[in-house]
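By way of example, we now present a protein record of this kind:
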Amino acid sequence: MKLDFSIPRRVRLVYFGRIGLGILRNYITETNTTIYENPRIRLNVWVVLRMLLSGERSEFSYYRAFLRWTKPHAVITMEDNNVTFYATKAIRPTCHSIALQNGIRLSMSHSSDSTFASELGRVGKLGWRADVIGSLGGSGTRFYSAILPKAGGTRIVEVGNLINNASPVSPANEGVGPKRLIFISKYPNRGAGKTDPTWNTEILQYIGDASFTAEKYHSVEGVVARFCAEFARARGLNFVVLGKRPMWQTGERKFFEKYLGDFEWEYLPSTTQSSSYESVREDDYIVNIDSTLGYEFLSRGLRVAFVTARMRHAGHPEIVETNFGYPFVKESCGDYWTDVASRSEIFRVLTYVTSIEEHLWLAATESARNTLLIYDEMNKRFCQLLNDLQIANTGPRLWTRDLIPQN
């Protein structure tokens, strides 16, 4: 924890948390701003003193004291799963509060007693809410619509993922070497350690009453990657693992080395917050388990095969919310998706994805692309939302290089 001795000032806009600051500042041009940080990370002593005068000690009372100092016109966040943010409207009714969905929201939790959905439902009864939630698309809209009070006044606007909308993929590398089969890794943040003693012992998260270690939750990725590497070798494709972690977190590469053995493959670590998009070419074939990134690539019309076998592989086939397109897609298997991590099923969906003609692919995926997660190039919808809320902005554009944070 760092102590902050600066006296808080009145501002027009508050960024709630540092997640997504690079992409938000790509558009928002308000100059009278500040950042609210979790007091466990940075503690402002003046805010603490004001909190103590209230006779309360909690993150809510700290945030309330912060807002009473800063008196903002608007608060915006990409930490849409941070329940404290939703107190903004209860504390300062005249302030605009905007939450931007930053990932597919499921019932995962670090506790078996509650989930984000249950906590948001609980505080909603206390009058906590947002003025606007910018959802990823149909699945996000449904998630929030089911939880938030019907008469609460929250407006849900489908804006897609801001980073996806602002980050171009690379053009096709036509005629230069074999095409690529890219597997999207969802390897967790386990730090820089060379060993991970709690990988198969410590509970990583819960889904309902089911508990998962990192080994139980993520081993399916190694299994699927190996079958994909076998398919790539048989079809003359280059196999690539698109890393979620930076190079200095060595665990991700070691994890796939264990499963891929003597297969030829390339590892692309995450270098910046846009590198995952820039690493992919328009003519790549992509394999996804349940990463939001895979749905983002699908929304662009790229060829993505979904092997959403995580829960079945972990011994919990009754948990279906990680299946492809949940809850809009009812079938567990289709032309380009399956929830079974077997060689035959993976080869089946990959054969379809790599052989179908382009116009037929776009026709076959049109319904999913329009329903699950939208793609709004250059964030036109987000900029219109900022205009509606009288927040100064640049207007639609791509993400400028100097505003893309390094990983």
